[in-house]
Amino acid sequence: MLAAEPLSEREQAILRYLPTMMSNQEIAGELFVSVNTIKTHLKAIYRKLDAPGRREAVSRARELGLMP
After folding, report:
1. Which residues contact 21 (CB under 8 A, 6 or more apart)?
2. Using CA atoms in the order 10, 23, 19, 63, what is the torsion angle rounded to 10 degrees?
3. What percent of the chain is modeled with pLDDT above 70?
4. Do residues 27 and 11 touch, judged by C-beta distance below 8 A?
5. Is this prediction's pTM over 0.85?
């Protein structure tokens, strides 16, 4: 089963940080973008994976084979 809409490259990059304990601000620092940019990408990730939050998004991504 695939996500209804594929994740962009940037969304996939952010998705890899979600299982960590890093805050949105720390992720933004790693990727050299603003916190608002991270939040925008997270909303898209949650929508595309039909997940209400980080934990569910990670679980769903693993189910779909998008991450180990």
Report:
1. none
2. -50
3. 94
4. no
5. yes
